[in-house]
Design a protein that fits this description.
Two copies of one chain form a homodimer. Chain A is of the alpha/beta class. The first copy, chain A, is built from 13 helices and 13 strands. Among the domains of chain A are: about 45 residues, 434 Repressor (Amino-terminal Domain) (Orthogonal Bundle), CATH 1.10.260; about 180 residues, Response regulator (Rossmann fold). In chain A, the strands form two sheets. Chain A has a seven-stranded mixed sheet, with helices on both faces. In chain A, strands 2-1-3-4-5-11 form a six-stranded parallel sheet. Chains A and B meet through helix 4, helix 5, strand 2, helix 10 and helix 11 of A and helix 4, helix 5, strand 2, helix 10 and helix 11 of B. Chain A binds a DNA duplex through helix 2 and helix 4. Chains A, B: Pfam families: LacI, Peripla_BP_3.
DNA sequence: CGGCCGACTTCTAGCGCTGTAAATTCACCT
DNA sequence: AGGTGAATTTACAGCGCTAGAAGTCGGCCG
């Protein structure tokens, strides 16, 4: 039943509260018979420690906030899953409080300046709008680790993958497939995000390293980070006469939209146009054709981020540490490994089956540790 | 700065703690000059109330748990988004603590019998494995509302859509499109979930109401709730010689997998096979062809669930209330509205564009309130 | 056989905030 | 001027738990 307090257990067992507390915490210096007697009392009363009371006393809440734009974006929901599992696996067994910023500056401010303090022990934040100065100013003394390639003040820890390198590798892969007109899809129409900026830089580097020209026409922005917007933008570009034989997409949502726009126009993938997405979300394996994608190592990202956060919570107070985690290219049908460069048309059913099965069948891995 | 306590503010302003507390809470009966004086002290010290302290004193944490199988499933991530927005909009401004059960009985038990009590004020749980008896036994006195069509003891509140009715309507729509061999895809290979069970019942009712025979061969189970599993299962069924002209899918993941299996084999959608999914996830608008889907009113679901939960938290102690919220059929290319029954081939670019834009273009709405 | 040591348990302050009840102040009447 | 009730403000006792100080008890050494 509810409302059984430590004191009730103590009385029931005829001992002091501290002894009960010691039993609950498996402290040493409790004799076996005593331990058993107390445990029986706990069981009989159905006692469960009250989290809030404990937390007031210890100053730790066991909660960390995970803040990003929107759980509905597959990358973030997959991240939430990974982080919450990793957090639970932590020694301290953290639980995760989800906060959505909607990708707006107001949302990010709201998350950082919550009017109440002390609810969470620390925060994992993936900022998208806020300047690094503002982040530095606002986070106050809340232990924090930033995720992703967004703004990051030097004073705060951060984990990310090397977006420039990843975009370069992916673009080079398309070039190595023999593509010469590689377009970039999915950056913001206006107000380029940090993410888009870096991926475009990498895209350009990839083109240059393969001796391909950089054409402004081949940058296809979208109105929002959403597959329908991408479908429209790519469709319009095609209809406007823009020609390309490969698409480097800012993210998988853009890639999925692009897939649709190409299908609508009867353009064959990857024969006419190869496509690479970004994030390697679960759907990539079952789009048609299945989607090659830049695959950040989110497990490692979560692990490193939580590790640094735990250190901050424990009082570490050094300068911000910036860590890179690795990524790989998950190669699927939309931009296969170079061996099978152009290859069979994509309706070879049995081949495809095997591919779906293997998930990230071929992959180029890149470890860049810090 | 950190660690400014109520008492510090009180001393700084030369008043009692309670007066400061009153100012913080905008209580009446605080004179204007006093309010201003205290406010200045608060600002000068940069005081922010400590959530844990307050919560210990009030007994409320302002947190509710939202527990379901896996955030990575789009339906759940969309639900999480809706619930957390709705919860924040509540008078009490609840925050949402995410809990994943992995869809296993152990996970569900873990969520229900968290060893610590008092962390959350209440819980929204979408069970999938646990029996209603076990739910009733375990939830103890934690205010709780169940989501979805899973098991629900009579003593606990629950919100769901009428899955049987929805499946019937969707199946009938396929029949009205002239389809006579309508298969059902995506239920579990073994250990049918409550969800699948009800949707299959509705599917059967839909067939019967249109005078179509129910064939066991047309039930295509999958190994897991995942699009790749569905792709494989549908592919195998086709390869085994099973013939159908429409697919009623247990969920959108199954539908997306089915889409892929059909594409691989060069089967035209919706001309050869029409497809209806379930959940109306965001991707449905940009699959190719776009996917018709049963669209539960999740906003309403969240609203009703939170409302009931709030009442439970406030001490309401009646018998379990079971509420239905409405759904509609979001009709897109994979199973269009009956007017355009077979219609143009799906690569009519401009038409399609408009369609993508409109999202759930045509829709049959069903309000079933309780 | 008394005293001292170590092992174990109890005592007792809080952690930061809120709610109730009591105290104070103040404007206004008679 | 004394009294009254309303409006404010203060005092204080916890909410449930933890941790360090203080106490208790049995055993062992001299």
């Amino acid at each position: 039943m509810a409302g059984v307090r430590l004191q009730d257990v103590a009385e029931h067992a005829g001992v002091s509260m501290k002894t009960v507390s010691n039993v609950v915490h498996a402290h040493p210096n409790v004799s076996a018979p005593m331990r058993e007697r107390v445990q029986r009392a706990i069981d009989e009363l159905g006692y469960r420690p009250n989290a809030i009371g404990r937390r007031l006393a210890t100053g730790r809440t066991g909660l960390i906030a995970l803040a990003f734009a929107d759980v509905r974006l597959p990358y973030f929901s997959e991240l939430a899953n990974v982080v919450s599992k990793a957090a639970a696996a932590t020694g301290s067994g953290y639980r995760v409080l989800l906060e959505e910023t909607e990708g707006t500056i107001e949302g990010e401010r709201a998350v950082l300046s919550a009017s109440e303090a002390g609810l969470v022990d620390g925060m994992l934040l993936q900022p998208s709008q806020m300047s690094s100065r503002e982040i530095a100013e606002r986070h106050g003394d809340l232990p924090m680790v930033l995720l992703g390639e967004g703004p990051a003040p030097l004073s705060v820890d951060r984990v990310m993958i090397d977006n420039v390198a990843a975009a370069t590798v992916a673009t080079e892969h398309l070039a190595d497939l023999g593509r010469t007109r590689i377009a970039f899809v999915g950056h913001e129409n206006e107000g380029l995000s940090w993410t888009s900026r870096q991926r475009i830089v990498g895209y350009q580097q990839g083109l240059e390293s393969r001796g391909l020209p950089v054409e402004h026409d081949l940058l296809i922005p979208t109105g929002a980070i959403a597959s329908d917007e991408a479908a429209r933008a790519v469709g319009e570009a095609i209809d406007r006469g823009i020609r390309f034989d490969a698409l480097m997409c800012r993210d998988d949502l853009a890639a999925i939209g692009a897939l649709r726009a190409l299908h609508e126009r009867g353009i064959s993938i990857p024969d006419d146009v190869a496509v690479i997405g970004w994030d390697n979300i679960a759907f990539d394996a079952t789009t048609f054709p299945s989607l090659s994608s830049v695959s950040p190592n989110t497990h490692e990202l979560a692990r490193v981020a939580l590790e640094m956060l735990a250190e901050r919570i424990d009082g570490y107070d050094g300068i911000g540490r910036h860590r890179l985690v690795d990524f790989e290219l998950a190669l699927r049908e939309s931009a296969p490994g170079s061996l099978q460069a152009s290859g069979a048309t994509s309706d070879a059913a049995s081949d495809v089956d095997a591919d779906v099965d293997a998930g990230a069948s071929g992959s180029l891995s890149h470890s860049l540790s810090a």
